[in-house]
Amino acid sequence: MGILGKIIKAAAQLNPNISADQNDMIEDQKKVLLDLLSDAQNTAFGKFHGFPEILRKENIYENFKNEVPIHSYEEIKFWWEKQQRFPDITWRGKPKYFALTSGTTGSESKKIPVTNDFSSSMRSVGIALTSELAKFSVPEEIFESEVLMLSSSSDLKKTEQGFFEGEISGINVSNFPDWYDYFYRPGKEIASLNDWDLRLKKIVEKAPEWNIGCVAGIPSWVLRMLQAIKKEYNLEYIQDIWPNFRMFVSGGVAYETYRKDFDDISKNELIIIDTYLASEGFFAYTADPKKMSMKLATNHGYFFEFIPFDERGIDNNGEIRKDPKIFTLDQVNLSDEYVLVVSTNAGAWRYVIGDTIKFTSLDPFEIKITGRTKFFLNVFGSQLSEEKLDNAILSCSEKLNVSINEYMVSAQKRDEDTHLHKWVIVSDEKFNEDNCAEIIDDHLKKQNNNYRVARNKTIDQVVVIRVTRNQYDTFIEENSKKGGQVKIQKLMEDEEMEDFLSFINA
Hints:
By secondary structure, the chain is α/β, with parallel strands linked by helices. The chain has 18 helices and 18 strands. The strands form three sheets. An eleven-stranded mixed sheet has the order 6-3-7-8-9-10-11-15-14-13-12, with helices on both faces. A four-stranded mixed sheet has the order 2-1-5-4. A hairpin with a 2-residue loop joins β9 and β10. It is globular, with a radius of gyration of 23 Å. The N and C termini lie far apart (52 Å).
């Protein structure tokens, strides 16, 4: 481990990040698009959409935009299903793996192709992230310690068509080279367990044998793991068992609603690195220790486009318009929120992955994730993104001095004259629910003009109901939502909310 740690540290110090400024990143994107079209011009998708002809035109992007439509999953699924059986459909060759999305809504998982070029892109973004670590004043002992990655199961399923399927983090772990065993924990054997409770039990049992300096995973499940270890060994802080633990690489959901609980179990201030790692690609990562925004990965095989998340790009039902306004990287601003559109070397073409982002810097280009297009509360005109909902919960948590991580909210119509927002908040600490509702309501009124108008006209009441962590966990278990990479939905339909409350009160 000593030699390996020195190698990693040397890479962080000596591998300066390429494309650090605005102009370079814009040029990166032009080259990425050219490379993607060139590599895919002889595929079925490329021939159908005239990639060879596009490449001969003077303005490649404009012709690409005119010839290739924007795709939802249901629209590109036609091509990807053929790619499960035949080579050279949307990308060269035939993928060995397909990534299953984690499925926050409980709907059937999507299957995203994972090509060799795509896997190489993910690794290259990881190396780029490593090259930024020198900025973070990472303590020497972290480079001499082990990394615990809380992934989905690496026990992949082989299909009749001959490819393997599983969640992207499980696919990545299954492809780790043997030399990763020197520093990767919990190890492939434990990582292959499908049963979350059994996997957690094994991790807790092995914890005293490991020297963990960094943990990576979704905050909600990592927190549960650390709390379980702390409880099992009666620790005051997690560093009482892992003294070198100083870094958390976060992803999947916003970290801020979990910050207080991470601070409570850690003796030392943690270095937090946020990542935008989805089934469709590793798109961005924290590159500046002074902020939680993430630098866009512009030279790693991903071409980005941006649809404004307003009337220019979205209709009244929250769906992408048939002919939306769409921007490239050189056209974005700091004011607007955007729906992310990607073309990748996995054979995704102008694909809407469902995330909304906002730029926090244009030089270099840095972003933050603001939510999901489907997780947008606008039933009564309130126009609340997931980020705004999170901030309201943070305000309530701080003012009432209670720990709140998870929550659910729904817009409900009780009769023709009564409309309400119903919040279910998960916390083992008792608090006045009416006070919490008032804090949330006041915060949203101050921060969001659309909500303030809707509150005066169409939203009659804001209701908060507290449930315990045990009640929430039981519901998750009964609905097969447990797992290191599972993201629990925050917005519920009226009927879903009432089913949840009926389950809790049963």
